[in-house]
Amino acid sequence: MENNNFPTKRNLINARHGLKLAKQGHNLLDKKRQVLQMELNTAKLKSKHLKEKLTKTISYAKIAIDDAESFTGRKVISKTVSEIPISNHVKIYYLNIMGINLPQVNTDKNFDANYPQYVLGKTNIYIDNAHEKWLEVEKITLIYAETQNVVTYLEKELRRTRKRTAALENIIIPRYEIRIKYISEQLEEKERDEIVRIKSINSHAVFTKA
C-alpha cells in the first residue's frame, strides 16, 4: 500500500486538497477547451471563405493575364515580370491565445495601393490590370496560409487539452475520490473501535468497583 493511502488524518487532508486542485484544473482546462473550440470553428469558417475567394480571384487573374498576352505578347510580359525585384517582405510573428503561439503573417508591402514594380512607360493597361489581380492573389494566399496554420495549431492544442481533461476526469479525480472514501471509512472504523474499547474499559471499571 502506498504511504499516501494509509488511513491517517494527514493523508485524508492531503487527498482532499489534491482533489480540490484536480477539480480546479479540470474546470480551467474545460474552459480552455471551449475557447479553443470557438477559435477553431472561427478559423475553419474563415479558411473556407478564403479558399472560395482565392479560387475566384485566381480565375480572374488568369483571365487578366490571358488578356495581357493577347494584346501585348508573352515576351513583353516575361520581360516585365523579370524586372520586378524579389523582396522578402513577408514576416512571421506570433499571437498568444490561451498560452498558444499562433503564427501571423505581416507584410511591409502596401497591397491596397497595388503599386506597380516595373517601368510604366513600357507597359499598358492590360499588364497593369494583370499585375493588380495577381497582387490580390498574393494577398489572399498569405492570409489563407496564415489561417490554415492557425487551424493546424488549434487542432493540435485542442487534442492535447481534451486528453488532459479526460485524464483528470476519468483517472485523477476518481483516484482521489476512492482514496478519500477508503481513508475516511478506515478512520471511522478506528474511531468506532476506540469508542467500543473505551466503553468496555469503563464498564469493566464499574464492575470491578462493585
Structural summary, described in words:
The longest helix is centred in the last third of the chain and has 85 residues, at 125-209. This protein has helices at 9-72, 74-83, 125-209, and strands at residues 90-97, 100-107. The mean pLDDT is 83. α1 crosses α2 (74-83). β1 and β2 form a beta hairpin. The protein has a single domain, classed as Orthogonal Bundle (Helix Hairpins). It is mainly α and 210 residues long. The relative contact order is 0.15. Helices cover 76% and strands 8% of the residues. Strands 1-2 form a two-stranded antiparallel sheet.
Let me know the average pLDDT.
83
Number of helices: 3
Q: Tell me the major beta sheet.
A: 2 strands, antiparallel
The percent of residues in helical segments reads over 70%
Could you tell me how far the N terminus lies from the C terminus, measured between alpha carbons in angstroms?
A: 47 Å
Please provide a brief summary of the model:
The chain is mainly α.
List keywords for this structure.
210 residues; mainly alpha; Helix Hairpins; two-stranded antiparallel ribbon; 3 helices; 2 strands; rod-shaped
